[in-house]
Amino acid sequence: xxxxxxxxVGSLRExxxxxxxxxxxxxxxxxxxxxxxxxxxxxxxxxxxxHGDGPDAVKLFREAIRRSDGxxxxxxxxxxxxxxxxxxxxxxASTPTKTAVLIKKPVAVVGATPGVKGTxxxxxxxxxxxEATQSYVLPHQKMYISEIIHKVDQExxxxxxxxxxxxxxxxxxxxxxxxxxxxxxNS
Length: 187
What we know:
single chain; oxidoreductase activity
């Protein structure tokens, strides 16, 4: 059965490097369906707004996560941490506490940066948040993409570095397999 994978990019920038990675993933692992899940329209998290299905943008966001078999989060690193827009999105996806769409949802985390450390700190923070949401984060594997500016083509908006493409392909293939394993954890 074909897996449905949601792609959440933690950057709002039009020429986001992580957006380019998200645009590349479907051509690397074709035995899945992909949906970009937008976070730009989400209001800042406010418990006063979080009743029923929440605001319209939140309702659409949660529905997109719910219909996905798994989620790949693509995070930049801002000031040695998770971008505020991504943390905000994860906060919306973590409520209501007992029925949140991230509970037992398989998740993978990828990050790209022009720097040399490859979003290590941002990914640690995202993983910490996902642990609190009871998500099933792909274990034992990390996908840090450093010096991304030299590995993409700005015009095609795609990852062009062959070595990085191979690593990313293996990572996403492992994630697709992880979805099946995580499903067994729910049985």
